[in-house]
Protein: Histone deacetylase domain-containing protein
Organism: Triparma columacea
Amino acid sequence: MYAALLFLIAGEFISLHHAVSCYGCKTWACSPLQKGRSSHLSQVLQSSTRRCTSLLDSSDIDSRDIEFLTTPSSLKHLSCIEKKVSRNSESSWNDQKTAAAVGAIVFATVLGYAGDIFLGPGVSFFTSSVGGGLGWKLLGGDSVRENDIPVDGGKDKKFVVDVPARLRAILNRLSLEGHIVRKVEPKIKRGEAERLVGLIHDFEYIKSLKDACDKCLETGKPRRLRQSYSRTLVDENSYEAAMDAVGLWLHATDRVLRGGGKAFVLVRPPSHHATRSRGMGGCLVNAIACAAIHALEINGIRSVGILDVDAHFGNGIANCIEENQRIRYVSLHEHNRGMSLGGSRPEYDPRSPEEADNGPSGNICNIVLKKGEGWETYEGKLMRGLAFLKDCDILIVAAGFDAVKEDNTSGLSLVPEDFRAIGHCINKTMEKKPIVFGLEGGYTHHMGGGPEGMGGVLGDCVAEFIEGLRGV
Ligand SMILES: [Zn+2]
């Protein structure tokens, strides 16, 4: 019995390790970069004031005021995962698992006897456990994982971490903490969003994104954004969700520039890996870059700072803003994780995550973190990044929560309370300047021992961060 228990644990361990190590890397190995990107981009990016908007006197601003915003379509993007999970849970034990269980028992028995005969009686328990785990794994006992989605007609399965449940967990936690999250009309600023997306991204890419989502509508199945190698998936709701996310970012930017305080945009899909010519790492459209350009078009705004505290390199933001000296970008990211290999494939992803790469305009500041790094060293690096941004007129924060120790998509070691300290550092440095925050990564909504409905470790990180921002 002990042997059976151990081989199941060993099998699950192998499965989990595989599951968490496979997200967010090598998505660039696809078709070549579209040639002939719109040449007017840099002129447009450098354009100055376009509209008249009066800015609030900073003395009127209450730094504790944070407006939380979301759109209904954010929970629809890849909601097929949830249907898949519920279908699995109804029939979680299938023929393949039965075959794997039988195989595991055979492996455990054979290796147990072999250990007994060749290595001595005390070793058989160990060898039978290893044999059981191997048998389970080799025969596909864990082939259906919770977040696997069958794509491209069901021949292949892709593991997805950006599930609607993570956003729902955050919304629920905020509600329980007494914060009001305002649902904004999905079509808000649609025309403006499309105009800015057209400035940031290649036309061919946006067309291919829309075509991929339209095909999902026809087939009713999710698919890869590109047909080869891509790990980034879309379904029939993804284009709408991405454009609504841009619209909400623009709305929030207007909100803080006109009304002061802070706004927190709680949307999916995230932005920071989406380059000009391709979506990757679960990101489809770079709403953050759109918001930065939008802010620069408002009268009186001369410079925008972007702080990216997601654990992975924001290669997409770096690529989208690299030609604009009025935007400064700071990314704190773990070395050699996720999109950190971008610079080695310049034809697909021109910006490198290394500290030496400041971009062609010198407006990029990469701050590299080592595996296992915690607050002791993180704080100094964060303050170095904030010093690079503190003179900007508005700050945009790519708020990822995957640097927390429990998050398997990174090797960093922050604890939830450190996010309160990050909030304090941002508050202290930027004082009463307008700030827009937006959700990026963070996948620990199902981890942690807190009460159900509190959003797990992810909920703790977000709640701590907000308290820090409010100066609590
Ligand atoms: Zn991330």
Remarks:
- The longest strand covers residues 327-334.
- The pocket of zinc ion is lined by residues 310-312, 400, 402, 440-441 (CB under 6 Å).
- The first helix runs from residue 2 to 21.
- The mean pLDDT is 81.
